[in-house]
Structures are given as C-alpha cells and as structure tokens.
Amino acid sequence: MSERSGSLAAGVVEASLDRDSGKLRVHKVWMAVDGGTVVTPEPARNNIESGIVYGLSTALHERVTLSDGAVDQSNFNNYTVLRMADLPEEMHIEFLDRDTPPTGLGEIGTPWIMPALANAFAQVDRQARLPHAVHAGTGGRPC
C-alpha cells in the first residue's frame, strides 16, 4: 500500500525466484488506485506503470558503488537499469470510480512495489534476499 499527494493505492505482484541463478522475476502486477476523479485515464495509467517500472528497477538492478570515495558508474554501460526483457508480462491498473477532486498520481506507483516484491519472495523462501543484500561486497562488479 502507498500514499502520495492525497492518493491511496494498494498492489500485489506475482513473482518467481530461479534458485539456481538467484534471479528474481516479476510476472504480473495488480494495483488499485484511489486518485479522486481521474481526468485523463490513459496518461494517468502510463504514469503509474512507469512508477512501477522505476521501483522494480531500483529493487532488482540499480546500484551505485564507490571506490576511493568516487562513484564507479559513469553511464548506462556500467549502471544497470531494468531492461525491456525484464518488465512484468502484465500490469493491471484499476482506478476507483470516485466523484471527488483529483489528487496526485505522479509517484503513486513507486513506493509500494519494493515491499510487495520483498513480501512475495518471503512467501517463496523465508531465506530469500533482494539482490542488494545477496551481492553486497562485490566491489562494484556487476552481479
């Protein structure tokens, strides 16, 4: 669940863990959003989906490392973000039908996705950790 700019949202993910490679994969995402009257539904949906992708990228791929006090990453050749092949197969966004003033939807898709992902993998395996914890101490090498 998340709250942002007067909007409320709740979501769940369907995910899997490849135990051999340790790769986490999100297959489906469902999210219900109470953003008051939604004036432009398709752009609002697109904005929320991009927030979900941004949150998944942060949880699964992005990492900044330092060497001698300087950031190791300089561009996308050595700073990994979520790629098209890693996107969820389905994202279902539903808006509550409300006759109330519009509220902000710009970032409502991001805050809930990381805890939802952690909860999904806790159900799969109580010992599962997100990549940041699993690969800590790799000296800035990509995982």
Q: What is the gist of this entry?
A:
This protein is α+β, with helices and mostly antiparallel strands and 143 residues long. It contains three helices and six strands.
In terms of DSSP E residues, the strand content is: 25-35%
Helix-strand topology string: EEEHEEEHH
Strand line-up in the sheet with most strands: 1-2-3-6
The low-confidence parts are: 133-143
Number of strands: 6
Average residue-wise pLDDT? 85
Oligomeric state of the chains present here: single chain
Number of helices: 3
Could you give the distance between the termini? 30 Å
Helix proportion of residues, in percent? 25-40%
- Radius of gyration using CA atoms only: 17 Å
Secondary structure category: alpha+beta
Q: What sort of overall outline do the alpha carbons produce when their principal axes are compared?
A: globular
Major sheet characteristics:
4 strands, mixed
Explain what this protein looks like in three dimensions.
With 143 residues, the protein is of the alpha+beta class. The chain is built from three helices and six strands; from the N terminus they run βββαβββαα. The strands form two sheets. The protein has a four-stranded mixed β-sheet with strand order 1-2-3-6. It has a two-stranded antiparallel ribbon with strand order 4-5. It is globular, with a radius of gyration of 17 Å. The C terminus is likely disordered.
